[in-house]
Each structure stands twice: as C-alpha cells, then as structure tokens.
C-alpha cells in the first residue's frame, strides 16, 4: 500500500510518524524546503534567533515537530519543494524544480493547512498591506518585519500572537485593532477554559502588548487604510464611535482562518457549511475519513481547529489509512487520540464565539472598494451582478457571480476574495451566506508555469 | 386540451436562448427549460472564439448569418458580450498544412468570407512573436472572440424582457407528443405547445432517441487553460490546421488556450480538465508563441458539448414527430453559431422556411449509412 501524505505541518508530520512506526514508507510532500508548516515555518538559513525567540509560546512544539521531521526524512519518501497541483484517482500531479510530474498513491492523507481570511478594508490593496500570516512568515522565515511601524487589524488569536511576536522582535507596533469587543471574548471565556493552558497563553499575549505600551482597540472597526502609493496611515473607529487616524507604514490584516481545501475539492470530497467557523469545510468523520475511498483529511485543511488538534488529527488519520488498508492498528493509541480529539470542538466553538468573523463588516464593504484584487473587481460590480436587472440577469450564487464579474477568476482563484465576496453577494441577495454556495475548484490549485516539457 | 404556449424550447444554451429571444420578439408565446442555469455547459464555458475562418463549407452560411447578429448584439441584448473583432489567424506548421490553407481560399471566395493567405516571410514580419515552426497563415479580419459567460444569460434576460418564459432549474424529464401537442410536465405544472425545439447540446441525443431517431452523439469536453495577465501583444484569435491547439489573448492580458479533451460524466453532469492535455496544450502554445514559456497558468476548465461523428450539428425538423425541430451536437464549435441558430429556428417555426441550407445537418443522415 502506497500512502501519500500531502503537507508537512503539524498534521502531516504526525501522520508520517504513525505510518513510519507502523512499517510504511509514505511519500511525503510539501511545497516548503523543510517540515513545520506555516505555524512552525523554519527560519532562513544562518539565523541566530533561537526557537524560543522565533516561536514564543509555541517554541517547544515547534522544536518537537522540527526534530521529528528531521528523523522522518530518511524513513519516508520525502519530497520537499513540491507543489501538488491536481489530484485524481490514484495520481497526484506535481511541480518540482520547474518540472511537471506525477506521483501514484493508493491512499492519500491531505494535510493542506489554512490561510488568512480577509475583509476588504478600503485601501487593502495598497503596497504595505499583508495578511497576518504573511506578516508572521516575513518575521519567522525571512527575519524581517513588514514595516518600521506596523498596525495590526483583524480578529482572532493570530492577531494577538503576531503583534506580540513583532513587539518581541523589536518592531514598533502602532496599533492592534480587534473587531471583537472585549465583552464578546469575556462571554466566551467559560468555553475557552476547556483548554486552560491555551486560554492563559492568550491572556498573557494581551497583557504583554498592553505592558509594552501598544495602543489596543477592542470592538472597533477599520475605516480605511490610506496612502498615496503605499501605506501611510490607518483610520479606525473605536466602540464609542470616535475616529482615530494613526500613522504607520505597514498593515497586518486577518480575520481568522479558512481551510486550504482545494485538493479535497478536486478529489471529490463533499463540502458542508460550518456555521460556527463560517467556512465551507470538506466533510470527514472524526478519524479523517471522507466519502471518497482512499482519501483522508487532517489538520486545518479539514476545518479550522488549530495546531494542537492538527497533530492529533494527523496521527488519527494515519491510523485510519492503515486500518482501511488492512493493517494492524494500535487500539489503545487510537482510543487515546479519539478522546483527545473529542475535546477539541467545544473549545473551538468557544474560540469562534470569542473571535467571530465580522461578517457584517465584510458584507457592507463600500461600493468603490476592490474585493477581488487579482481582477480588480469592486463591491459595487458584485452587487450589480446580484440584481435581476443586470444585463445577464441576476447571479443567485457565487459561481454565477464569478462568471459574470470575474470575481475569484485571477491568480488566487478566490482563495483570498472568496469569503468576503460570498458575504457581499448574500447581503445583496438578502439570503443566508450558505445559500450562495462556494467557488468550485479547478486545477491547478496554485499557478503552474507553461513549459515545453513533453508529457511523461 | 389546448396549447399554453406556441413553442417549448428544451435547453438554455446559446441556441436555445437566442431562439427564445427571436421568437418572443415576433410575438410567439415561448417557454424555455434549462436543467441548471442558462449557459452552464458548452455555451458558457467554451473558448470564446467567434470564428468563421476554416469552417466546414456547410456551416459557413450559418456562420455568415450569425456574424451579422454578433455585430448587432448591443441593440439586441444590451451587451456586446465583450465581442472584439481581432481577426482570426489559422496557422500552418508544415507544407501540407499550408496547402490546406491555400485550398480553403476557394471556399472562402464562394461564401464571401474575407480571408487573406499569408506566406512565411510576411507572417513573421507581421506577427514577429510567432514561433519558427509557423510557415503560413490564413487571416480572417471579420472574426474575433467574446466572453462566453455573458452571451447565453444576456440572451435569456432579453428574451424574458420580450415576454419569453425562462425556466431555470427546470430539467426536461417528462415530455410527450399526442400527434398535435407536446406536453411537458415538471412537478404539478404542465406546458403544452405544437412546437418543441431540441437545443439540449449533448443531451439533445436523449430527446431525439425518445422520439425514435437516435443519433451517434458523444460527450465532448474540450480542455482549456487561462494564464495570468501579461502585457497585451497577441491580437488575433489563433488556431491551426488540424485544430490541435487554439490560443488568444484578451486585452486584460490573460492568454486563453486549449488542446485535446478533458473527462466528463454527462449523467451528473460533471466534467474536469486532465493534466496530460493541459501539458500538451502548453507545449503546443509555446510552439506557436515561444514567448509564453514560463508564464503561469492559473486555471484549467472544461464543459460538456455534443460531438457528432462528422463534426456537424443536427439542425432541422424531426423525421418522426411533427413540430419537433432539432439543433444540437455542435461538436465543439457552436458558440459562434448560437445567435444565428436562434434566428434560423425562429424562421423555421414562424415562416416554415429559412434561406440557410440545412440539408447537410438533417438528422437522418446517420441512418443512411455510407450513402450519406
């Protein structure tokens, strides 16, 4: 049985660990040069910063995942620097070192991770605006800050984590604006206490920022990111309705995460709208099995649950693949994983309640603001496409809106603009967000070069 | 039971939606039925070529007729569907292919199609970015390209505004003919009319078979790709002798090209491009335009059309059922013809005749065997 594990973050690494322990030699693929995933992204070669400096509260986990990855490289068929751009029954289509290729498999565990979810704040297309994840990777992987004076705007644990990491790295943080009011977070505190250690880490982050003298606004909204041809300032409104104009030269923007689930989509896995996290997620059971034979999912790519849950889910999905292939399973270990995984959803639900996606803010994106930056499509163009009087008739769902306006048709294929575009369309149609559907995936999941290479 | 409508149109692709508009404009009571949303399959996700150049001689009268309508789209449907007259350049990559282009010049003259044959030296002087394998070309200045995602929906909206009933999410499953009227039933609703137009693309074969005249139609899923935007330099829409690659660039910068076939399951319906034709399309695109090497492809796609063994559609009256008129099986090149087909079908229904010769497209040509 040939098992392919796609992704080398916390989920993929733990999946490979289990497979190797059970006597398999899986093919293990990641776009990056080394394992760790986005959360534990490796630093640039020659860095002098320690794990503790780079990863803060997550240092011990990062170190463990990195060390495990080093051990597993020889025990697996490790394929770094490889993009899987398509999946079909038994075959992965890949791009590695400028060559197109294929990798066969009997079972695949997709551990494809997550990316930031954005709200198209006016001015978000100015140079100097990054996603929170992008701001974090600049710091961890390249050892640079995105600016000399940075404003962080959004909501979710990553907002506070990245801001703290910037302060710790010596960068000036001009503002942390969380769209979620403190009271909303406080109400969710009871649920968050299901994972007291994580809850305590979160409180420590906020305290550290306030101690460092960082300007913090909770329950405010971003009004605009301003500047002539690059970020010069941000205008925000606090909860009392007062407007603040804050100078900065870069913005980190992010409102929670969305699954990177394109491969699951191409594999034919059915999706369901998860109202708690307000994301479309590929359907799977607690072990990671899907309705598509041979395809298991684990980690944030299967629905946002965080790095700790991803480690558990990766291991669990590997056991599922082993069992489905007729192999012997460590029942005690599986039971332990199942118990641990059962504790995740209530905590995640509390976290989503604590940091909800500001759907109304996204839905009310000003008319002139670009929603789809690849194709330069504004909120007004999208709203116009929803109207029955539009020259093509109205678009009742997102794929039609894409066909009429080109929203989601560019380089990112809707990975960035998809969620806010759906909010705007649903609002314009006056229907539920789930009713406008999700953008259909098409290969390649990321851009691939036109090559003269003969078909192999 | 009396008729509720004059015409039932089965299928909301380019041909069906255009027929709905042309009939409604002349006062006919029309109801159109589309399984999903109008323009969802071959009509909505095709390459977007508006090409007369190189067409089978039998199709040229329809193409000429359709081209007139393409020029009038803004007044007819309120949008030009991004139709741009860029010219179409059909390329030869060998002496044999060049001879084929030369032979076609006589066909073009016969049908008044403006066409210019360009030899090796001139073609590289005029379009210096063409690759060295190109030895000649035939340039049709009236041709161009359009946005297929807009055309059928805009026809449907205009038809609705003209009084046609456009039913989406309305699959044709129950339809019967009692000798005088067609009766179509969906749930507890019933439509009755003396005329039915079969514009169901690949699925038109099922309707034909239901009325006792099965044809050998197969699903066709053309494999197409689009690149990231790059500076605009490829003005003409391009194809090759033999048709194994086609390529154009839109002013926004994206290069749209295709080759070969993806895979599909019309029963779902579901279709998906395949990596092998995708890589082949890339290699052939570089052969035509070497400068495209290294440009990023951002998406590939396909949709389902009906493919006939002789590459020609079925157009014309049923041989078994009075009032049934077919127009399906456009074999991968119906997008350009759709507007004209609608006008021709309206004439067949309301005037009982049309100026365009339809004999080559008759449905019983397959039953005649080799004599056809």
Overview of the structural elements:
The complex is a heterodimer of chains A (456) and B (372). Chain A is α/β, with parallel strands linked by helices. Chain A has three domains: 3-115 and 258-351, FAD/NAD(P)-binding domain (3-Layer(bba) Sandwich); 118-255, FAD/NAD(P)-binding domain (3-Layer(bba) Sandwich); 360-436, Arc Repressor Mutant, subunit A (Orthogonal Bundle), CATH 1.10.10. Helix content of chain A is 36%, strand content 22%. Chain A is built from 16 helices and 23 strands. In chain A, the strands form seven sheets. In chain A, strands 3-2-1-7-20 form a five-stranded parallel β-sheet. Chain A has a five-stranded parallel β-sheet with strand order 9-16-10-11-12. The mean pLDDT of chain A is 94. The radius of gyration of chain B is 21 Å and the shape is globular. Chain B has nine helices and 23 strands. By secondary structure, chain B is of the alpha+beta class. Chain B is 27% helix and 26% strand. The model of chain B has no long low-confidence stretch (mean pLDDT 96). In chain B, the strands form six sheets. In chain B, strands 5-6-4-15-16-17-14-20 form an eight-stranded mixed β-sheet. Chain B has a six-stranded mixed β-sheet with strand order 8-2-1-12-23-22, sandwiched between helices. Chain B has two domains: 7-52 and 148-217 and 309-371, FAD/NAD(P)-binding domain, CATH 3.50.50; 88-141 and 222-302, D-Amino Acid Oxidase, Chain A, domain 2. Chain B has helices spanning 14-25, 60-71, 73-77, 95-110, 120-126, 148-161, 204-210, 275-288, 338-350; strands spanning 7-10, 30-33, 49-50, 88-92, 116-118, 136-140, 144-145, 165-167, 174-177, 182-186, 189-193, 195-198, 218-220, 222-229, 237-240, 246-249, 254-261, 263-265, 270-272, 296-301, 305-307, 314-317, 324-328. At the A-B interface, helix 15 and strand 23 of A face helix 6, helix 8 and strand 20 of B. Strand 23 (448-449) of chain A pairs antiparallel with strand 20 of chain B, so a sheet runs across the interface.
